Amino acid sequence: MSTGFFNGIDKIKYEGANSTNPMAFHHYNPDEIIMGKRMEEHLRFAVAWWHSFAWEGGDPFGGQTFERPWHPQDDMARAKLKADVAFEMFDILGAPYFCWHDADIRPEQGSFAGNLSTLNEITDYIGEKMEAGGPDLLWGTANMFSHRRYMGGASTNPDPDVFAFAAATVKSCMDATHKLGGQNYVLWGGREGYETLLNTDLESELDHMGRFLNMVVDYKHKIGFKGAILVEPKPQEPSKHQYDYDAATCIGFLRKYGLEKEVKLNLEQGHAILAGHSFEHEIATATAEGMLGSIDMNRNDYQSGWDTDQFPNNTPEVALAYYHILKSGGLTTGGTNFDAKVRRQSIEATDLVAAHVGGMDICARGLKAAAAMIEDGGLEEALGTRYSGWDTDASKAMLGSDLGAITQRVLDEGINPEPRSGRQEILENYVNRFV
């Protein structure tokens, strides 16, 4: 039974690059074979429950602009209506996956027992929709940043009762994710950081955060959850000093607390920008360590210093991201989640669908460009040439030598190297041939 929210919007079909229909896919053809695998299986698109259905259109300077039939989001009847609408849009888009925070799908009850009750009720309802032919759950997570109880952090909070409430909340969300057959479980430490060292015991907070994550891993194995545990880096916002600043920071944290073989990263393009990085940098950092799990595909406004979470529209950026993903073997349990929201002036149901159509198309274009570059081999050939000096026996032996022996070799052979061009502009021009 239709809710009527998407009246007049048909299922989105692939019509090809020459189509001018704004409500059609021009590049995303789920059945197209790319490097031996269906495009849908490469991209593994997921719709984010929070920005698509829970966000009300506010920003730091203004309140709600969206007036949805499920607003206010304060009782179970409206939570179920929101779920009905969500599954209608999943069907319209042909999206194979979705994601949620607990606070997105159930109303806040003000107590853990109340939240647990509504979470169980709504996930049973969602499970029925999945069994009726709806998409799968890519990942679930707990919102431990919006409620005022978390203003000083969750696992890093100075109050042990907040730590306990957060631990119980994560357990409930892991149970719900497991029940729904989720392929991953994500932890985003939105408040895991500090604003001033004047009131912060940094060492203790990091130790508590490390212990919390170890508890999560232990519980994963206890319940037999086969999915991946992922952490999501984010810098600065909302905390001034975020403990999970970027991919490299998170990798160092995971290694410190013995979690590098148990936990991977969920990387977001918008967070990369806030950290002063490119998305390809974050992905390459994670893949170099074998720790890429999943991606949140969005973008930030380069002229704003906060997390604008816009849908992607830059093919070269997206292509280079998927280039590194494909080189590393592709996404396994992870996927491409649209952690993105329409602009607060885009108040119609058509805007919400069209935003996802455009994002899926841009990712498809980027994926095809990335695959073409890999199949052409130009970048790999350039890398091989640039580092070819390290293929000689003498160079390899030097890495097992010592400073004294190396110095003697420099003297004996009269080594006095001349700089070699990095050919950056040539490589940038090469990439532009494909995008």
Protein described:
This protein is of the alpha/beta class and 435 residues long. It has 2 domains: 33-376, Divalent-metal-dependent TIM barrel enzymes (TIM Barrel, Alpha-Beta Barrel), CATH 3.20.20; 380-432, no CATH class. It is 45% helix and 10% strand. The chain has helices at residues 39-43, 49-54, 76-93, 102-105, 112-131, 160-179, 202-223, 247-256, 269-274, 279-288, 315-327, 349-376, 378-386, 393-398, 403-413, 424-432; strands at residues 33-34, 37-38, 45-48, 97-101, 136-141, 184-187, 193-194, 228-231, 241-242, 263-268, 292-296, 336-338. The strands form 3 sheets. The protein has an 8-stranded parallel barrel with strand order 3-4-5-6-8-10-11-12, surrounded by 5 helices. A two-stranded antiparallel ribbon has the order 1-2. A two-stranded antiparallel ribbon has the order 7-9. Helix 3 (76-93) packs parallel to helix 5 (112-131). The longest helix is centred in the C-terminal third of the chain and has 28 residues, at 349-376. The radius of gyration is 24 Å and the shape is globular. The two termini are 42 Å apart. 41% of the residues are buried. Its EC number is 5.3.1.5. InterPro entries: Xyl_isomerase-like_sf, Xylose_isom_bac, Xylose_isomerase. It catalyses: alpha-D-xylose = alpha-D-xylulofuranose. Its cofactor is Mg(2+). Mg(2+) 2 binds at residues 268, 271, 307, 309.
